[in-house]
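Troubleshooting log. The previous structure file for this entry was overwritten by mistake, so regenerating from the original sequence record. Sequence copied from the archived sheet and checked twice against the printout by T.R.
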Amino acid sequence: MTHYAMPDRKSWEKEWKEVSGHALVAVNSATSLDGLETLRLEYLGRKGRLTSLLKDLKDFDLGDRRELGGPSNAFKEELSAAIDAKKAELEGAAQDAAIAGTKLDLTLPGLAPAEGRLHPLTLVMREMTGILSRMGFSWAEGPHVETDHYNFESLNFPPNHPARDMQDTFYVDAGSGVPGSILLRPQTSPVQIRRMEAQRPPLRIMAPGRVFRHEAVDASHGAVFHQIEGLYVDKGVTMADLKGTLLVFIQSLFGPKAQMRFRPSFFPFTEPSAEVDMQCILCEGSGCPACKRTGWMEVLGAGMVHPNVFKGVDYDPEVWSGFAFGMGVERIAMLKLGITDLRLFYQNDLRFLEQFK
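Regenerated output below.
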């Protein structure tokens, strides 16, 4: 570049003639993006030749600035546009060359995108609710955040009753365990109360949903898990109806050879109450470590609805009778899928989840 101490119109015009005569020719002749960038910096960079000429115009008198400024600024815009057009041309040529150098067989089938899949717990829950639906049970839901009334009191849990200790409950407010307390439901049984308050018998419902318990997480326990409860109320419902319903359900889920037994138990909202065991599907009843050598595995709890529960929802226990049952979805899924650790369902490991469809 030509340097001069003071802006002089004659020297300035000489430099301008050289820049304007060569810049566009050089840009249009560029053969690479790197070369084009070098030219851009040479003419339009912060210390470029054209940039310096335009800066020097400020030292000319007003008449010279008006005469020289218009054409020089117009040329700057023309040069910038030429650089942008050449850059697009060179980039397109580079892309065409890359495509031309790629061996592509257009007759090959395309790559199918990866398919999503349902979570194994969702698959098992759909199967369980599908069986119950075909048996006449309709879907019912309720809130996750419940009151002590719906979760304990209306289910025949008196205040300070030791049966409340059977469930480690997350309380939301400071009044833990007293009437009016707000809690995260540890069971889906409150859905039964809400539905009975809203509907006169007969009714037959299932209540699938998430529940919460203050428990240490290990291979067989979780603080958050899923339950499905069933309720059937009508005239003349007996324990035999309960047993027949559960036998059909278990054999539909695990196959016609599945065997079931009742063991006496206690739940405040049912009387009589029973723990329901299924013959171990791993050893077929001969005894193994999974069933603790007993040949049986506990799968759910059940019983006849307690008369006090009916009285609380204004059902006459002398007219109506019914049964209720509840089971953990994770436990059923572990048995059905051969999973030994409940935590695998919640670790989001694709290597595990992709095994199930």
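The CA atoms of residues 261 and 276 lie 6 Å apart. Archived copy saved in two places this time.
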